[in-house]
TrEMBL record:
UniProt gene name: uxaC
Gene3D superfamilies: Metal-dependent hydrolases, uronate isomerase, domain 2, chain A
Biological process terms in GO annotation: D-galacturonate catabolic process; D-glucuronate catabolic process
Family from the record: Belongs to the metallo-dependent hydrolases superfamily. Uronate isomerase family.
Entry keyword Iron: no
Keywords tagged on the record: Isomerase
Domain of life: Bacteria
An MF annotation (GO) of this entry: glucuronate isomerase activity
InterPro entries: Metal_Hydrolase (IPR032466), Uronate_isomerase (IPR003766)
NCBIfam families to which the protein is assigned, alphabetical: PRK02925.1
E.C. number: 5.3.1.12
Name recorded for this polypeptide: Uronate isomerase
Pathways involved: Carbohydrate metabolism; pentose and glucuronate interconversion
Length: 477
């Protein structure tokens, strides 16, 4: 990983604990990065082209940044975010950068500022502070770095110390970029860049174009998705293709964590209603819930680890969605219930250690109340790291404080960055490692954990756990 110039960043302020945390962090910092879930475009590494200008790389695609400026009245089009109808947006990278720099004060105290400043310093070696007066200087320094061969994607991948990076694709993806990576010795089973099976667009009847997507699924899989049985066969076939491209996990981004174990005939009736365009929201929710149980059944057959990312109200900002589409900052969290929602799946498969279901949440209250007790009581369940609106130093600390007493360290997965921002990957992992070092140092200082066990634990959290949970060292270790 890149070298960080502030050795005490995020470490405890108390001198004794800070000294312990430094020792623990040093062990974590030298570990390779396992990035088991994220949204980096595989074309970035398959094509290995130079990055575009600093604004196109760091600002335009980052909805953490653009949504903050939208909240202050700066429309995404002024920051270069593409529109759905192709209407004009700002394309001059320097203009976008200046506009962003003029609003940099909005990010004081946010994780976005922490990640971006650390990216400037540790990835690009640029220490000019961002602000209106320095915008052009910083832009030019970053642009000069991006023109160097050492700052192309594959070179950075090497320098970041990434051992495995998982991207996320729909079953409708032909996996062509992953085929190119495999041909270059970077992809395929056991590869450095692998895919993840994300079937939301062919499972969620409320997804735009769902019926058309299901038809396309059948064409790709060579199955008749006019029937429910054919639909299941098509999903199984695509999972086989994804596993051949290196996938070790699936991912499911449902509005809720609800599961249902329906009889095949009832599931087929729901499916047929959806195909006829007659399904209502309750039908769509029931079908999503049933399919989670169906995917658990498939995972027992093919070994894919299941990830469940529930709780986001997608496209809550309807104006933003209408103007710019999905995944541009218009989503918000909602309260999410797990105990009753997951009961049907757990009743069927929760005690089977062959199944791994990694649970995430956007509802921090659920860590203590529901998720830690569930993961601490079912062989199939593991807790994913704080995600999206919660991936901040404060919540990472609270996560360890709230779940460890009930679930321990070893019913968690280690850190999962879940990012589209390739250049922020080492920074995000470094933040998590520093927070874990501080938490473990406190346990040592309170005489609750010997230093040798804390040292073993931090290496497990940084490296061994994610590698084992997501089967990057062999199937079902």
């Amino acid at each position: 990983m890149p070298t960080f110039d502030n050795t005490d960043l995020l470490l405890p302020p108390e001198p004794g604990q800070r000294a312990l945390a430094r020792e623990l962090y040093a062990l974590a910092a030298e570990q390779p990065i396992i990035s088991p879930h994220g949204h980096v475009d595989p074309a970035l590494l398959a094509e290995d082209r130079p990055f575009p200008d600093p604004a196109q790389l760091l600002i335009v695609p980052d909805h953490y940044l653009t949504r903050m400026l939208l909240s202050q009245g700066v429309p995404p089009a002024d920051l270069g975010v593409p529109t759905r109808d192709g209407s004009p947006v700002e394309t001059d990278g320097r203009v976008i950068w200046r506009r962003f720099a003029a609003h940099w004060h909005l990010f004081r105290g946010t994780p976005s500022r922490l990640w971006l400043e650390q990216t400037f310093r540790t990835v690009f070696g640029v220490h000019t502070p961002l602000g209106p007066a320095t915008a052009d200087t910083l832009y030019d320094e970053l642009a000069a770095r991006l023109a160097e061969p050492d700052f192309r994607p594959r070179a950075l991948f090497e320098r970041f110390g990434i051992e495995v990076l998982a991207t996320t694709e729909s079953p409708l993806d032909d996996l062509g970029q992953h085929a190119k990576l495999a041909a270059d010795g970077w992809g395929g089973p056991g590869g450095r860049v692998v895919t993840t099976f994300r079937p939301d667009d062919v499972v969620d009847m409320e997804f735009e174009g769902w019926s058309t997507n299901v038809e396309r699924l059948g064409e790709l899989a060579g199955e008749n998705t006019g029937t429910y049985d054919g639909y299941l066969a098509a999903l199984r076939a695509r999972r086989v293709a994804f596993i051949a491209a290196g996938a070790t996990s699936s991912d499911h981004g449902h509005p809720t964590a609800r599961t249902l174990d329906l009889a095949p005939q009832e599931a087929a009736r729901l499916y047929d209603r959806g195909r006829r365009g007659e399904a209502d929201p309750a039908d769509a929710e029931a079908f999503r819930a049933h399919m989670l149980v169906e995917f658990a059944r498939m995972s027992l057959d093919d070994g894919l680890v299941m990830q469940l990312h529930p709780g986001a109200v997608r496209n809550h900002n309807r104006w933003l969605h209408a103007r710019h589409g999905r995944d541009v900052g218009g989503d918000v969290p909602q309260a999410t219930e797990y105990v009753h929602a997951l009961a049907p799946l757990l009743e069927r498969y929760g005690n089977d250690p062959r199944l791994r279901v990694v649970l995430y949440t956007l509802d921090e209250d659920a860590f203590t109340r529901e998720l830690a007790p569930l993961a601490g009581g079912y062989a199939a369940l593991l807790l994913g790291a704080p995600w999206w609106f919660l991936d901040s130093p404060e919540v990472l600390r609270r996560f360890r404080e709230t779940v460890t007493e009930t679930a321990g360290f070893y019913n968690t997965t280690g850190f999962v960055d879940d990012t589209r921002a390739f250049c922020s990957i080492p920074v995000r992992h470094d933040v998590a490692r520093r927070v874990d070092a501080g938490f473990l140092a406190r346990l040592v200082a309170e005489h609750r954990l010997p230093m040798d066990e804390a040292a073993e634990t931090i290496v497990d959290l940084a490296y061994r756990l994610p590698k084992q949970v997501f089967n990057f060292g062999g199937q079902n270790q």
